Amino acid sequence: MNCSTCAAPSFKLFVFDMDSTLIDAEVIDELAAAAGAADEVSQITRLAMNGEMDYTESFLKRVAFLKDLPYEKAMASVDKIQIMPGAPELIEYIHSIGGKTAMITCGFSVAADRFKHELNIDYVFSNELVVKDGLLTGEAIGPLRTTNSKEKVFEKIVDECGFQFSECVVVGDGANDVCLFKRAGFSIAFNAKPSVQQQANIAVHEKDLRCLIPILKDLII
C-alpha cells in the first residue's frame, strides 16, 4: 500500500503491542523457558498469535505452566530481553512531532514496567503475575486476559485522553491486535503472520522499527 495516498487525519496517539513489537521476545515464552516449559508454551503462543486458538484459553494455559517459578528467576529472565531494533528512535520521533505513545500488552508488568521507562512510553497497560511466598502461582490478574480485551483498554485510553479513533495508529504482530486494527485510523502489521497482515493497512517485514518512521512521515504530510 502506498501510504502517501492515504487521506489521513492528524495522528495523535500511537499504540504498540509489546511482545515481538517493541521488544525482541515473547515474555511468556521467556518465562516458560525459565520454568522448564518452553516447548509447551511456545506452541500455544504460536497457535494464539495465528488466531488458531481462543486467546482466553491460551492465556490461562500458558500462565499455568509458570506455577512454582521463583519470582527472582522470572525477573532474571526478563532482564535478558532486548528492545526491538529501532524502538528508541521510533518513540523519540513520535514524541518529537507531539504524538503520545501507548503500549497495550497481554504480557506482564514484570516486563512492561521496565520497557515503559526505558522507552519513555506515555501509557502502559498490562497484566500482573500473582506471586505467593516468592513463587509464581500460575495465575495472573489484570485487564488484558481475555479475547479482545485489548480493544476495551484501547477504548479507555481514547475516551479518557480525548482522542478520536481516527487519530490513532496501531502497530502489532498478533491475532489479538486485529481488534485494534479495525478501530484505528491506520494500522501496521510488524513482522506479523499472513492472517494478521491481511487485516492491516500496511505490513512491514524488516525487523527494525526505524522502518516505520518514513511510513509515519507520509501519513502526517
Automatic annotation (TrEMBL):
The active site is at residues 17, 19. GO terms for cellular component: cytoplasm. Its cofactor is Mg(2+). GO terms for biological process: L-serine biosynthetic process. It holds the Pfam family Hydrolase. Keywords: Amino-acid biosynthesis, Hydrolase, Magnesium, Metal-binding, Serine biosynthesis. Coiled coil: none annotated. It is an enzyme of class 3 (hydrolase). GO terms for molecular function: L-phosphoserine phosphatase activity; magnesium ion binding. It comes from the Archaea. Gene3D superfamilies: HAD superfamily/HAD-like. Its EC number is 3.1.3.3. Pathway: Amino-acid biosynthesis; L-serine biosynthesis; L-serine from 3-phospho-D-glycerate: step 3/3. Belongs to the HAD-like hydrolase superfamily. SerB family. This is phosphoserine phosphatase. The lineage of its organism: Archaea, Methanobacteriati, Methanobacteriota, Stenosarchaea group, Methanomicrobia. The gene is serB.
